[in-house]
């Protein structure tokens, strides 16, 4: 099982020339790469023609699966009529206008304007710049720090990686930068104390947030950023009372809440937006990934009217709103965004996720009896299985053993792709998956889990 076959020509060329993101570079020559050639429905196919259920929608993004003809047609049509234009200097395109209107229509809170980026990282970077810009416009030049959370994931640009609360995004990268504060991670299983109830855990986190704000000075803090369900930190679903409780503290101190919906948005959690599933009421929103069902890069920042007015005032003082990306609001991305949202609505993707989530939950719960499984976590069609060395004490495996990545590798041999985030195996299948395909994904995962158990013992 652990003997990897000799590398193919394409794999060798891959390793020789491509710098692979989030990859154990020192092991690459022995592990090789999995070169994917095509995709259809929930399956992707490698260069040998082997099919894999893509149980992660790629990187939590291909929510409508692969090879969707409607999206392909929309892309082709847009490329024929206008392959590129921009929104700088008061220019506009019909696809950007339509997508902004659609996003305002489906937004979970009142939104006045949409700023387009090319990615989730750029969206969150922009959120921070906008919070600074807003506070300068409002005569609060010292209100600039941003609170994030341990285990958060908000991207990899210098500021987005600083907001991210994962060691491998900081160590060796001279990050986080100043002005970023990390508060507790709302993961009861990992960070709840012995004998502490979930309600007491939430109260402790609220107190810790309040202490942090008071220590730093409320007048120095602009915003807090949060993913409703935390994705790349290990699919962490906070207690249901958590957001309402921390928002009280933020509101008291006039600290805005930025909602990072980059994974959660567009039906993933069983509602249009993760904030609706988790009881969060944000001020501004970041979106990307399923915004275009991943058929093109695109990100968006959504802001309400009162914040927009601050930009207008500041632009009047300076002469322009000095921010924008060459490909932010690219017509291809916007046309795909419009089409993806139309498909989500017409095919009632939220309804489909809700219909499948009891199956997802039942298969997750059944895994709890396995000796390697410490905890399973799920919301809608996103979930995580945390592997542990000792179920009773919740002791984790030594990270050097790389048990999670090993399971993911074994799973490829069983014809499915999931992502190991540490020793948590993340599930985020295309939202169009059928019940039979979902069961097949779990069947294949169970085989890989059994093989991993044999490997670790
Ligand atoms: N925010 C969240 C919650 C994410 O999961 C990600 C990527 O996984 C990002 C932001 C960054 O998005 P991108 O990789 O498009 O820059």
From TrEMBL:
Keywords, alphabetical: Aminotransferase, Pyridoxal phosphate, Pyruvate, Transferase
Molecular function, one GO term: pyridoxal phosphate binding
One Pfam family of this chain: Aminotran_3
Gene Ontology BP annotations: biotin biosynthetic process; gamma-aminobutyric acid metabolic process
Classification via InterPro entries: Aminotrans_3 (IPR005814), PyrdxlP-dep_Trfase (IPR015424), PyrdxlP-dep_Trfase_major (IPR015421), PyrdxlP-dep_Trfase_small (IPR015422)
Family stated for the protein in its record: Belongs to the class-III pyridoxal-phosphate-dependent aminotransferase family.
Record PANTHER family: ADENOSYLMETHIONINE-8-AMINO-7-OXONONANOATE AMINOTRANSFERASE
Protein name stated in the entry: 4-aminobutyrate---pyruvate transaminase
Native species: Neomesorhizobium albiziae
């Amino acid at each position: 099982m652990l003997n990897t076959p000799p590398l193919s020509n394409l794999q060798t060329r891959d390793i020789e020339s491509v710098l692979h993101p989030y990859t154990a570079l020192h092991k690459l020559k022995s592990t090789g790469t999995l070169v994917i050639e095509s995709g259809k429905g929930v399956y992707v196919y490698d260069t040998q023609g082997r099919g894999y259920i893509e149980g992660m929608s790629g990187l939590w993004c291909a929510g409508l699966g692969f090879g969707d003809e409607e999206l392909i047609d929309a892309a082709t049509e847009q490329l024929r009529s206008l392959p590129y234009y921009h929104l700088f200097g008061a220019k506009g395109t019909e696809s950007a206008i339509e997508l902004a209107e659609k996003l305002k229509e489906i937004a979970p809170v009142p939104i006045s304007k949409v700023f387009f980026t090319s990615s989730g990282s750029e969206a969150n970077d922009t959120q921070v710049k906008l919070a600074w810009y807003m506070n300068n416009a409002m005569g609060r030049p010292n209100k600039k720090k941003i609170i994030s959370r341990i285990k958060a994931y908000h991207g990899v640009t210098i500021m987005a990686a600083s907001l991210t609360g994962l060691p491998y995004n900081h160590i060796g990268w001279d990050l986080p930068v100043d002005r970023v504060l990390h508060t507790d991670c709302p993961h009861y299983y990992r960070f709840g104390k012995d004998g502490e109830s979930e309600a007491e855990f939430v109260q402790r986190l609220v107190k810790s947030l309040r202490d942090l704000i008071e220590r730093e000075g409320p007048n120095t803090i602009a915003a807090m950023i949060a993913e409703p369900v935390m994705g790349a930190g290990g699919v962490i679903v906070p207690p249901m009372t958590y957001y309402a409780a921390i928002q009280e503290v933020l509101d008291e101190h006039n600290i805005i809440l930025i909602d990072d919906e980059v994974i959660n948005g567009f039906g993933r959690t069983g509602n249009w937006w993760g904030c609706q599933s988790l009881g969060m009421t944000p001020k501004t929103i970041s979106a990307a990934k399923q915004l275009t069902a991943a058929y093109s890069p695109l990100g968006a920042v959504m802001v309400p009217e009162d914040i927009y007015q601050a930009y207008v005032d500041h632009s009047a003082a300076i002469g322009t709103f000095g921010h924008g990306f060459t490909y932010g609001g690219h017509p291809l991305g916007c046309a795909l965004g419009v089409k993806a949202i139309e498909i989500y609505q017409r095919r009632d993707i939220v309804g489909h996720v809700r219909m499948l989530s009891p199956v997802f939950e039942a298969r997750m719960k059944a895994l709890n009896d396995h000796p390697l499984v410490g905890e399973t976590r799920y919301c809608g069609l996103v979930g995580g299985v945390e592997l542990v060395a000792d179920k009773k004490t919740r002791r984790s495996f030594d990270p050097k053993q790389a048990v999670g990545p090993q399971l993911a590798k074994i799973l490829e041999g069983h014809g499915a792709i999931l992502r190991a985030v540490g020793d948590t195996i993340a599930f985020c299948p295309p939202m169009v998956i059928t019940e039979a395909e979902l069961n097949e994904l779990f069947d294949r995962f169970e085989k890989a889990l059994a093989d991993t158990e044999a490997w670790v013992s």
